[in-house]
Specification:
The chain has twelve helices and nine strands. With about 280 residues, it is α/β, with parallel strands linked by helices. Helix 5 packs parallel to helix 6 and helix 7 runs parallel beside helix 8. The model has no long low-confidence stretch (mean pLDDT about 95).
């Protein structure tokens, strides 16, 4: 369980150390709700393009998708080698780019799976520390979570597991029971709830957030249809985005609500994420 005091410590840990940098920070808090983006929303852009896009839109909170800093088009063995050998000063330089732009890195999205070696898991925490983030988010499996638990304890770092919608696979984080399994594995484990996927799996994110708000550190905002339906433009699906945002505002839940642009938009990612951000502003007005 994470108390409001814990949330406060997490928030402070994610802030840039320099007071000057803190003054430059882009403020995208709306009605007391921390709004930001998963950098996957700009997956077609390089890292500098992500920072430019978020600056243009006015989003000050970012969960960094690992492929934005990892080498592209390499084999699995070469990717593992990079993770094990990349100089941590290079990783610290990534954080500085975000700080210089006034964007807070609140989490590193590294999706552990059963192909990770123990050394690779361990090094993932070193990379997250070099990024200066208080937590790792992971689209992982239940079996890999068991292996990650001792490393989370060793590094004293939170891992928040991201859910999907494949309820037929018990090894996926799709059912509430799977999240409960993870929470029982380690005091360092938490939830990164994707409300769109949760709805596609035919669960109610509003009621789940009410019940589990002490364990949910990050929300991913997207709109999907029920019954494994597709990602759609916001407002066209079954996901209660507005109700979720209003709940966070009313209850003052300190979890971050991050836009994850995943539907097929009519325009470029910057334009579409701007629409999503405006949807959040309207919902919280």
């Amino acid at each position: 369980m994470f108390t409001r005091r814990d949330f406060g410590k997490i928030a402070l840990a994610a802030l840039p150390a320099s007071s000057l940098l803190a003054q430059k920070k882009i403020n995208s808090t709306i009605g007391g709700v921390l709004i930001g983006a998963q950098s996957y929303s700009f997956r077609e852009k390089p890292l500098d393009g992500v920072i430019q896009a978020m600056t243009e839109i006015g989003l000050g909170e970012c969960e960094l998708f690992s492929p934005h800093i990892e080498p592209k088009g390499v084999s699995r063995d070469d990717l593992r080698k990079w993770r094990l050998t990349v100089p941590l000063d290079e990783i610290k330089a990534v954080r500085k780019k975000f700080d210089d732009a006034g964007i807070n890195l609140c989490a590193f999205n590294l999706s552990f799976n059963d192909s990770f070696t123990d050394e690779e898991v361990d090094r993932g925490f070193d990379i997250a520390k070099a990024l200066g983030v208080p937590m790792i988010t992971a689209s992982a499996t239940v079996t890999s979570a068991k292996r990650v638990a001792p490393f989370a304890e060793k590094h004293n770092m939170i891992v928040a597991f991201h859910g999907h919608s494949d309820v037929k696979d018990p090894n996926q984080f799709a059912r509430p029971e799977a999240f409960a399994q993870a929470l029982a594995m380690s005091r360092k484990f938490a939830i990164n709830l994707d409300i769109g996927h949760f709805v596609a799996a035919n669960y109610d994110p509003v009621e789940y957030i009410k019940a589990q708000h002490e364990h949910i550190l990050i929300l991913h905002l997207k709109d999907r249809k029920r019954d494994q339906g597709p990602n759609v433009p916001w407002g066209q699906g079954d996901t209660p985005i507005k109700q979720v945002l209003q709940l966070l505002k009313k209850e003052k839940y300190p979890m971050r609500a991050l836009i994850e642009y995943e539907y097929k938009g009519a325009s470029d990612s910057v334009t579409e994420v701007k629409k999503c951000f405006q949807y959040c502003k309207d919902a919280l007005a």
